[in-house]
Amino acid sequence: MILCFLFQSFCLIFFEILQIRGEQRKENNMKTRKTFSVMLVICMLLSLVFPSSGGVSNAASASDKVTVIDVTQYGADPTGVKDSAEGIQAAIEAAKEVNGPVVLDFPKGEYQIYPDHAQKRELYISNTLSRNNGDRGTYKMKNIGILLENMENVTLEGNQSSLIFHGKMMMFSTIGCKNIRIQNFDTDFQVPSVVSVTAEKVEGNTAILYVPECYNYSVSGTTVTWSSDVSPYTGQAYWSYTNNVGHVQGFDMTTATLTTSGDKFFNNVQSMEKLDGHRLKVTYNSAPSFKAGYGQQMRRTTRDHSAAFFWESDGVTMQHVELHFLHAFGVVGQLSKNITLDDVNFRNYEGSGRTGVGSADFVQMSGCGGTIRIVNSTFEDPQDDPINIHGTFLQVTERISDNKFKVHYQHHETSGFPNYYVGDEVEFVSKGTLLPIDGAKAKVTGVVGPDGHGGTMVTGNGDKADASKTDLDTIIVTLDTNMPSSVSANAAALENVTYTPSVEIENNVFREMPVRGILVTTRKPVVIRNNEFDNVAGAAVYISDDVNSWYESGHDEDVLIEGNVFRRCGVNQNSYSAFIQFDPTNNGAAEPVHKNVRIKDNTFYFTNGTGNIINAKSVNGLTFTGNKVLRFSVNEKANPAKTTLAIGESVAMNVSAVEGANINAFTFNGCRNVNISDNIYDKGVTRRVNITNMQNSEVKIGENEGVSIGSGTQPASEMIYVSSDPEVVRVDGTGHVTGLKKGTATVTAYELVGGRKFQADPVTFTVTDQSIGTVTAVKVLAKDLTVKNPSDGGYSVSGDSVTIKAMGQGLWATQTANNVIVSGENVNRGDGTFTAIVKMSGKTVNNWDEAGLFIYKDDDNYVAVERKHGTNSPKVHVVTEANGSANEDQNTENPNAEAIWLKLEKSGNTFTGYCSVDKENWTKVGNSITNDKIGNSFGVALVAGTGNSTKGTAFTFSDLEVNGKAVALTEDTATGGESGNIENLAKVKSGNAILESASVSGVSFPTFSSETKSYVTTADKSIKSVKISLKAKDEKAKIEICRNGVGNAVGLKNVNEIVSAENSKNQITNQEVALVAGLNIITARAIAEDGTTQEIYRFLITRTGAQDASIGGISVDNKEVAGFDVSEKSYSASLTKGQTEVKIALKNPGEGAKAVLNVNGKTYNPGESIPVSGDNMTVGIAITPDGGVTEHYSLSLRVPSDSNAKLEKVQFGSTIQSNGNFNANLKEYTASTMTRTSRVTFTAQEANAKITVKCNNVTAATGTGSLETSVTMKKGNNQLLVTVESADKSRTETYIWRVEGKSEVYLSDLSYESNSATGWGSIMKDKSVDGKTLTLYDGSQEKTFEKGMGIHATANLYYNIEGMGFKKFTSYMGVDREANQDGNVKFNVYTDNKQVYTGEAVTRASEMAKLDISVEGVKILRLNVDQNGSDSNDHADFADAKFITELADDTTPETIAVTGVTLDKSTAKLTEKGQTVDLTATVAPENATNKNVIFETSNEKAATVDENGKVTAVANGKATITVTTEDGEKTAACEVTVEIPNVPVPAPEELVNEVKNEIAAAEGRKESDYTEETWKVYEKALNAAKEAVEQKTATEEEMQQILTALRNAASALKKETPSTEKETPSTEKETPSTNPQTPETPNDGTVKVGQVIKAEGQYGVFTYKVTGKDTVEVKSITAKGKAKKSVKIFDKIKASGKTWKVTSVAANALKGNKKMESLTIGKNVRKIGKNAFANCRKLKKVTIKSKKINTIGKNAFKNINKKATVKVPKAQKKKYAKLLNKAKLSKKVKIK
Fold first, then answer.
1. Residue 1414 and residue 1367 in contact, taking contact as beta carbons nearer than 8 Å
2. DSSP H helical ranges for 285-355
3. How far apart are CA 484 and CA 405, in angstroms?
4. Which residue of 244, 304, 972, 1617 has the lowest C-beta tally within 10 Å?
5. Is beta strand 612-617 parallel, antiparallel or unpaired with respect to 578-582?
6. Residues 1302, 1447 contacting (CB under 8 angstroms)
């Protein structure tokens, strides 16, 4: 029964560990190896009693097992204090020894990863280093933070830990791996190598620049120097740049746009001053062009690393990873398959103050296969393209045979890796056409070429002899079949077809892209779906196929672009000025390269600057359907010329969009089978198709699309006008307002277009009592006429005529005219003869005046007869235009009459024009002309235009006839106050997203205006928050706000709300927004009623923070930790035995700083109770200032234990250099030394533990607690072995250091002092000044050196070598051969300021000099290079520079081991207390190296012994005195008997053992089982027995009495009668609300908050955690019987003698329960933790009785049964539905 109970208790643990999920943080501290399987659960219990060492734990099912390795057990430091690089790699090495799946578990914390001790590999990565400038060789070695090589089924579980990288390095890499997951990490660099700076204030010639707190910088004159953090190993910065660094990218935070133009911050500088608060004051020689809110991202262009590198790997997934910075390049997949990025977010963390996230592309998938999935991710602010998926073309350079070819990497930044493997399918394409060559597809059978590591690989039937013919840029491939002759050198390129992936890019956000968005070229299916693009400078989707520049292959055969939202794309890149662009590098004239492209159901929001919606070249089968093309920003304004009218006076409303935009729809080049249909276009879209290298017939256009080839019109909008008082003013359909009687009224204009409605601000008109005409018959334009592009005062109505003023261009060519009045636009007239006549009064006056009668299809397709004034020669012309191509050759003399008649006749496609002065005698105007673009559907138009818009020549039209029937031009004004289709007005939703008002309290912004979208100000540190109030003009609009990307919606995904009560309403009042130090971008997004139209307003506040991360000390349980110093980051303190919780407080934290304590992945506030777990626990202390870099401290807390045998601390001083930080759980280390003798100190965690130190198998010393000793090393290999034995001798731990005794140390392997300097460039290690191999002249030839230093005169290198055991320093010196003849220097060497070498002047032609000096006892070595005259090309080398150590002439004497030891006495007897006897030890052999011995006594209560062998009597008894040698642990013993007369003799051992047995029997008895009276008697007897056994002084008689009393008391114990009290029955019909349980915790008043109550009742085993005075939380339930399927969370429970309310359900409480079908949640529950019921796939019925729930954690109900129903209280349904949806409840689950 006991075993069953134990099995049941641990079942939940077992199943929880099996479910290793990315979103789950593991709560348990896995530090022992445990195999969890159904058969071995009992063994787990034993392991708790006898835990093994190490950091490996196994979690297994019956069929397989998952091994969990805790990286902190291998030296990784979650407190953020020490470098974790080696510890992580040690854990990875341990994982390699495990069979089966492995989880490398990072307990939640912050891990520092430095490049110094990170893994290093020579790697060649696509699209990175150039072979042209030497970078490829210089940076071929990569520093890799976390490297997995040749591993399978490994999960890196971050548990939301932060990884902080340093210097220049790669974060993750998998090489040759399979099934790898990287999940739940937050990554950043301590100091990003892209420097972000923002202009906070600009006044005149002066700017205040804000520098984010993460950057280190100094100012000297007009130069600012940026530097990384310093290495903890060398004390040197990893990089240092000046001023603008290199490439500069601008970021305007007021508009969230990126640019490469504009003034650079650190050009044209007059002076510079470093201010407090991370500010720079820069004064320029002239006023800069940038304004406040403009930022710069400055970087070097060398791509020396990639952020992550997946090479030759299959099945790599990154999930839930935040990448805040990517050094040099992005995440690269190279020749890998099946890579997934899911919820991987490339963005700055909130409050970083930075605007740049990377140096180049974010994701580069080069030559990958399988499926590339990029989903649910965010991409912000790259320096290049966010995603580029492609292969690599290699150009054929030699046809060796019909099936063997030499191919060459063409682009200078891509080479060095194998692009083909044996068995791959490949295909040759033509360089000219990019089309596959017929018959040129084959499989690879042999490869000779680069292996990706700097070497050469020969595989398959590749010929080893060809290895010499290849290099990093060349590959020789052998194929399984012969190729056609057209596959020839320089005419063909080879693509790897096997490594072309399917691509899925879905549900991502792309924001602020400086070039393009998604680049993808692959012949496998591509799906780009449901993504959001905002502010992409170039094309959001760009598909090339390039065999001329980057050589990125290949062609696309199946592309679906669906359901995406594109905003403001293609606006700032002339070469990529389209939303979507297909741009292969062929000329477009050949057969199409790409095919089968579907662009459907997307929404495009355009602004000025974008050239096309689609610009496609060389595509066969392109469908554009179901899309919306809309203006991004629309703000309608009515601007009438006057608002005070006389009776009868009219004025136009003159409505226009303040922020109007225009775009041409489509450009196609060499495309086939294009289909455009069923799309919606907004005003501003010219629905034109421009084509090149293709026929019109290749473009199919839908019937009602309105799109034309070679020409196009913009969609006509429907205008509706409404007068508030039609008796005062009336308005016609063209927006002309007429005064009718004295009074005031407002007129509101609405524009309906593109499925949206836009309202202009109402205009109030005042009508005076003056009159300028009759009011009884006010005329307006006939309702059947439309006016295109109306302008204020551009036309007027009088009687039956209409007058048009020529105030703008005409329609010639592609011009657009104002006030084009059209009758019957696009009416089908049939194919018969058509005649139109009109009378026109008015003569042309100015050059290019024109007016007349038009047969009109659109602005670019018409025929006109008109008066036209060309070059002072007025005539009557017939003008024809087809697809924008115009002709006016047909003309006749202009009649002199003021009024003339104009006539146009159409017969088929033939048109004839006439003019007359009397309508009877007609003059033909030139010859008839033809125009086949007009067809049978057209209108009749009246047009007037001019080349001089200031004159406004008037032309009056009347008497219009069409086919002999009169067409009215005017009509009496309507009787109502509305014009247009009012029914449509009600049906169409508003597109008004304009803010009416905005205010931000606490800071000072410029006055708000609806047209101004951005505002900039500053705040000092006292301003911790602001309150923002916003109101939209439209009451049906919604407002959302966020700060720095943290807020509700605003286009973001997975963000936290900061607006609650009033969010998503049209008004927000006094919403408080907390401010961070540095940048605060408060973004307000107004969303119109239509749900699509948006306006964005930005409020930028740069705030100065306190920037103080200091603390004055640390205290543990109110006791201050001794020796606190802010420069020291690691501390320790002891707890008491049995202590269950601890409180840690911080003294005097900095102003505004926030402190967080991290223990085993859980966070606590200072002063909060922290449960004590285990004998040792580490507390990470993070102090985050109000602006600035977080400071980290580590506090080790230890509960004293006599069984503890671990080391606490190791101190080597400066003479031994250990590789990696000491960690008590790591047992083996490597180190090096340059000295023969070193002092070492080892401190145990327990003061009474025994320490033994051996060096090279000889015991150096033995001690207790802490041991300092000297060890002697020799040249070569040494072993330092330290053994720690616990005080109770139950455990022994052994630590080993393998120490290399170095006879020489290279100068470049040491760190120079900070005052070192070079005259130009950088101090170079193992490279010349120009970064090349060190090369000197030896008198006959050039000689190269791998090691040394390259510096430029004048230069000084300083080295502190004190105490390092160096005897000599040697070096070759000279001018490097890379310098030209100008180089001329002198070398000088100083030791402790004494010159010991004076060199002569040397040049590159001089023979190198040899230096050999003594440095024994020297503290500072100074190496000086002076210029000898000019400093031009003074490239000086200290080549092969090295120190010779004292180990070089190793004369270490032979060590003589101890063989034995004897004592001069074997027995001794003492009869008086205090009597002594001396024991003398003799060690053999006599000449043993270490003759130290240790004396010990077996019974200190009888006799003691000192370190010299003196034995002292204490009390009667016997003791064995043992002597042990330090070396070899040889022993000898003496038996000592103490017999002091008249001293009571202790009870015999047999009797004492009987008492002990009775005490042991008490362990099975519980107080609660017996009556209080009998238990008190028994307890008293038991305590007396325990005391007697412990003191060991009781006589035989006394001990017998104690035994008898204990046995009698035990016999007298009476059982407690069971209570007859019954549970109060529940009033509900279901399971009672309290679970009858047997309390496991006694009712002794000691139940505390945090304590766990585990009890068993009739419904199962319930585990609760106490959360308050009378409240508990459900942690887990193991149900019994029927309760397995129907689980109840009770209202209350009875346990530990009291009643508790069940108020919460813990995270993961019932996660993955496989039995539960129904669940009832009690009425007192207020909170449900994350994952509480996740993956309960059988759960079909949930009943929530509580009305108090405020929190439901993430994924709490994820993946329950899709047919489930959730029943909730009616009043809470809306609230609970929202909470449940956020908890990932399936939308298919019904909430009742």
1. yes
2. none
3. 12
4. 1617
5. parallel
6. yes
Counting every residue, how long is the chain? 1792
Euclidean distance between CA atoms 320 and 342, whole angstroms: 7
The contacts of residue 517 (CB under 8 Å, 6+ apart) are 385, 386, 387, 510, 533, 536, 538, 539, 540, 541, 542, 569
Amino acid identity of residue 485, one-letter, is S
The predicted pLDDT at position 1534 comes to: 95
Q: What letter represents residue 1236's amino acid? A: R
Contact 183, 317 (CB under 8 A): yes
Residue ranges of E strands in 1185-1330: 1191-1198, 1207-1211, 1216-1219, 1228-1233, 1237-1244, 1250-1255, 1258-1264, 1266-1272, 1276-1285, 1292-1301, 1304-1306, 1324-1325
What does the angle CA 1245 – CA 1251 – CA 1253 come to, to the nearest 5 degrees?
130
Q: Which residue has the tokens 């854990």?
A: 91
What whole-number distance in Å separates Cα of residue 332 and Cα of residue 1448? Answer: 46
Determine the Cα–Cα distance for residues 1143 and 841; give it in Å rounded to an integer. 98
Is the peptide bond between 1639 and the residue preceding it cis, with omega within 30 degrees of 0?
no
CA–CA gap between residue 356 and residue 250 (Å, rounded): 10
Q: Tokens 């039609």 belong to which residue?
A: 726
| 1301 prior amide bond cis, ω within 30 | no
Under 8 Å CB-to-CB from 1675, ≥6 apart: which residues? 1652, 1663, 1664, 1665, 1706, 1709
Kind and range of the H or E run holding 1657: strand 1652-1657
Banded model confidence at residue 57, pLDDT cuts 50, 70, 90: low
- Looking at residue 1068, its pLDDT comes to 87
Q: What is the pLDDT of residues 521-579, one digit of tens each?
A: 999 999 999 999 998 999 999 999 999 999 999 999 999 999 999 998 988 777 888 99
For residue 1464, which amino acid is it?
D
Taking alpha carbons only, the member of 315, 486, 471 closest to residue 406 is 471
**CB-CB contact of 1466 with 1473 (8 Å):** no
Is the pTM higher than 0.85? The answer reads no
Q: Which of 161, 188, 506 is nearest to 342 (CA)?
A: 506
Q: How many CB atoms lie within 10 A of CB 955?
A: 24
How far apart CA 817 and CA 837 sit, in angstroms, is: 21
Please choose, from the candidates 1390, 1395, 1391, the residue with its C-alpha nearest in 3D space to the C-alpha of residue 1419: 1391
Task: Give per-residue burial for 1618-1653: e unless 16+ CB within 10 Å, then b.
Answer: eeeeeeeeeeeeebbbbbebebebeeeeebeeebeb
Residue 199: CB atoms within 10 A of its CB come to 23
Give 35-54 as a 3 state SS string.
EECCCCHHHHHHHHHCCCCC
- How far is the first Cα of the chain from the last one, in angstroms, to the nearest whole number? 43
In DSSP terms, 1192 is beta-bridged to 1182
What gap in Å lies between CA 747 and CA 729, rounded to an integer? 8
DSSP states of 52-100 as a string?
PSSSEEEEE-SS-EEEEEEGGGGT--TEEEEE-HHHHHHHHHHHHT--S
**Tens digit of each residue's pLDDT (9 = 90 or more) over 1127-1176:** 889 898 989 888 899 999 999 999 989 999 999 888 999 999 999 988 78
Strand ranges for 1399-1502 from DSSP E: 1409-1414, 1420-1427, 1435-1445, 1460-1463, 1467-1470, 1476-1478, 1481-1484, 1493-1497
**Under 8 Å between Cβ of 1551 and 1588:** no
Cα–Cα distance for residue pair 1740/672, rounded to 1 Å: 54
Contact between 844 and 908 under an 8 Å Cβ cutoff? The reply is no
In 3D, which of 779, 811, 828, 820 has the Cα closest to residue 969? 779
Give the mean pLDDT of 1282-1305.
Answer: 93
Q: What token pair was written down for 318?
A: 């990154």
C-beta neighbour count of 981 within 10 angstroms: 14
State residue 621 phi and psi, 5-degree precision: 90, 75
CA 1591, CA 1602: separation in Å to the nearest integer? 13
